Amino acid sequence: MTFTVIVLVACSIVMDVIGQLCFKLGLDRLPELEGGFRLNAFWGQVFNAPLLWCGIGAFVVEFLVWLEALSRAPLSLLFPAAALAYCGVVLASKVILGETVSRRRWAGTLVISAGVMLVCVAHG
Question: pTM score, two decimals?
Fold first, then answer.
């Protein structure tokens, strides 16, 4: 992978993690609806939630960065590398959201990271 492709993939991963965090934080901050689940009221809340819009914006930027990366490198290399976003979300969930992450989940995250490294080294 060239330095440019590495930077593009890293930006894509960061934007994916930011988008997921914004969605989670945005939904957690919505007020609870009384009287059970009402779809119209829920969507009204969603459209007025700034963090959800930030998440959408992060995904739009990620999409554009991803297209640029795809124009420069094979999908068979980029897609496994993009799996590091899963690792970033687990780490961010622990650090930023304070979620509990089990040892098994950490082990799975390490396996994903090792697999990405294997694919990237084998491809080069």
Answer: 0.87
